[in-house]
Amino acid sequence: MRLAAGTRLGPYEIVSPIGAGGMGEVYKARDTRLKRDVAVKVLPESFAANPERLRRFHLEAQSAGSLSHPNILVVYDIGSLGDSPYLVSELLEGESLRQRLGSGRLPQAKAIEYATQIASGLAAAHAKGIVHRDIKPENLCHERRTNQDTGFRARQTGAGNSP
Predict the structure, then answer these.
(1) 151 Cβ contact partners less than 8 Å away, ≥ 6 residues apart
(2) CATH level 2 (architecture), domain 8-90
(3) 94-161 topology per CATH
(4) What is the pLDDT of residue 154?
(5) Catalytic residues
(6) How far is CA 83 from CA 44, 49, 111, 163, in A?
(7) Distance CA 140, CA 95 (A)
(8) Of all helices (H) and strands (E), which one includes residue 100?
(9) Is this model's pTM higher than 0.90 or not?
(10) How far, in Å, are 14, 99, 100 from residue 137 at the CA level?
(11) Contact 73, 79 (CB under 8 A)
(12) Residue 161 CB coordination number (10 Å)
């Protein structure tokens, strides 16, 4: 389901597409209540047709929403658009680890720093029984805010509870 700019999902107004994959489509959106940019991931309609997948989506969203760690994406809300569930999270603006590695090898100290940040986020998730299931360079975002290197944060694209 492709959403056009201006489409409303409750208080969220779609601005532009970010990406798409087997687990749905991700859009940049504007939270009209809190006046902030967010990411909205709209899952395929097939999720609603499968009660077990829908139950798992809600459980995973609740679990991810309970996490508070500087290296983990913040989940704000969940909802549905017709038969398509969606998840609202903070908008990460920066390059993926895949993009960062595209410009060559990292210096050893930077590689260790990034690996430590990634492991710290994963450890926090694992401590709550949450397994990401899709850790790959494309799902790790390197952020910069006001000329400060804030490090890597895991996107929730493949997050899930252990079975």
Answers:
(1) 70, 71, 113, 114, 117, 142, 143
(2) 2-Layer Sandwich (3.30)
(3) Transferase(Phosphotransferase); domain 1 (1.10.510)
(4) 62
(5) 134
(6) 8, 8, 42, 25
(7) 8
(8) helix 97-101
(9) no
(10) 26, 8, 9
(11) no
(12) 16
Strand partners, 8: 13
Per-residue pLDDT tens listing for the chain (163 residues): 789 999 999 999 999 999 887 678 999 999 999 999 999 999 888 877 889 888 888 888 888 888 999 988 899 999 988 888 999 999 988 888 999 999 999 999 999 999 999 999 999 999 988 887 778 898 888 875 544 444 566 654 443 443 3
The answer to whether the CB of 87 falls within 8 A of the CB of 61 is yes
- CB–CB of 158/131 below 8 Å? no
Domain spans of the chain, in order of start: 8-90, 94-161
Q: Look at residue 149 in the predicted model and tell me its pLDDT.
A: 47
Long-range contacts of 73-81 (CB under 8 A, 24+ apart): 73/141, 73/153, 73/154, 73/155, 73/156, 75/156, 76/31, 76/38, 79/9, 79/10, 80/48, 81/1, 81/3, 81/9, 81/42
Please, which residues have CB within 8 angstroms of residue 53's CB and are 6 or more apart in sequence?
A: 46, 47
Distance of CA 13 to the CA centre of its chain: 18
